[in-house]
Specification:
225 residues; TIM Barrel; two-stranded parallel ribbon
Amino acid sequence: MNYPFSTALMAYMQNGQANNLIDKALSILENYPPPAIHTLMNHIGTHDTVRAITLLAGKSPAKHQKNDRIMPKLDANHRAKGLALMKLAATIQFMLPGVPCIYYGDEAGLEGGRDPYNRGCYPWGREDHGLLEHYKLLGNIRKTCPALIDGNFEPVAFHGECLAFTRSGRGNSVLSVANRGETSIDFPLNEKWDRADVLLGHKAVGGSIKIPANEAVILAVQDDR
């Protein structure tokens, strides 16, 4: 279970420092043998942690306080923030080396504090369908992009809130760009990505691609053999 990755990813979601996440990813790649890398259980929440959406919404309970495990239901504003960051966190989770592992209910927007309140029943009939569809899209991208199986990982940009990296292998390359900032950015693209399919986000315009606040773009190309 890749807790170092989870800790670094959730920290990036909270503080927007992309360089720390890249440093941790490179450290994992350097210290783990390839067979282990490609079977790492990459998660953003487990039965031992506060529910991811609750944490990302900025409502993590303070330790050592009375009833610190019980969390009130998120209000509309905090829930909207949590949902947006859940989508962004899941996007990065599905694109990095390893196997994305989902703690049941995270894909449906299930809230909760510390154990046992992070182990509530799956919200049948009350799922957040926008979040659920986003997870389905990410799963389809994983299935259709061979580079995400065991492709090489290469950092492209990691300044401020912008995080970009590629996965390449099996005749396929995937570029993932995340913007954890509160304003949109224009990310420059080299000519390789002129012919790319846009799997998530919007098409490039004039050699760059616009990425709204707290969103990501995924592009894919077939490499020449």
